Amino acid sequence: MSGLLFKRSTFLLPTMERLHFVFSKISQTLTAGWDEMECHKVFKFLCELTNLQNKIEAVLTERPWLKWPEELQIRLYCRHVLLDHWPNRSDRQLWLNLLLRPWPLVSQARLLFILYGPSYLDVTPQEWHVENVAGLLLLCEGSLCYTVLASKALNGQLFEVSRLLVHVVLMCQNEHQISWVVKMVHQIYSLLRTAAEKLRFIQHLENMFTLVTMDMMQFSVI
C-alpha cells in the first residue's frame, strides 16, 4: 500500500490515530505523500514514544564518548528508522532537519557527528574529503549550512567557501537544489564587507569552476 493510498484510505481518521499504523512500519511506503506538518507529527509521536529527545539531550550535555553506548543507540535508531531508507535526498533532509531543529548550532554539529561520524576514535581521524563535506552541507541545507559558510567567509576563508560551493553544485540533483545554491552564493556575497572581498570571492568561484571542469575533462579522457 503506497503512502498516498494509505493517506486517502484513512483520510477521515485523525492524524494521531494514523500514527499508530506508522510506527509499526515507519518507512517511505507509508509516509510518502505526507506533507511536512504531518511528518512533524510523526516525528513528535516517535520522540514521545521512545523518549528520543531526552536521550539526545543526555548525550549532548556530556563530554564526547562518555556515553558512547547511548550515542551508538541514537545513531542506529535515527539512521535506520528516520534517515537512511529514504531514496530521495529531500526526504532525508526533512527528517534530518526535524532532528537538528530543537538544538543550538554547537549541539547540531555534535549531533551530526554522532549520526554520521565514526562511532569510536582510537587514532587521529583523517580530514573529510571535500565531496563528503559538500554532501553533508547539501543534506543540511537551510540555516545550518549558511552559518557554516558565513563563518568561514567572515574569517577570510573565501577559497574554502568557493571550493565547498562548487562541489555542492556538482552534487545537486534537481533545480530546487541549484536555486538554493545560487541563493546561498548571493547571501555570502552580500555578507562580505568590502568590494575587494566580493571580487576575490567571485574570482575564487570562477577559478574553482574552471579547475573542477578541467579535472573532469581529464578524468573522462583517461
Automatic annotation (TrEMBL):
Pfam families reported for this sequence: ARM_FBXO47
Domain FBXO47 ARM repeats region: 50-119, 124-205
Source taxon at top rank: Eukaryota
Name of this chain's protein: (spotted green pufferfish) hypothetical protein
Protein species of origin: Tetraodon nigroviridis (Spotted green pufferfish)
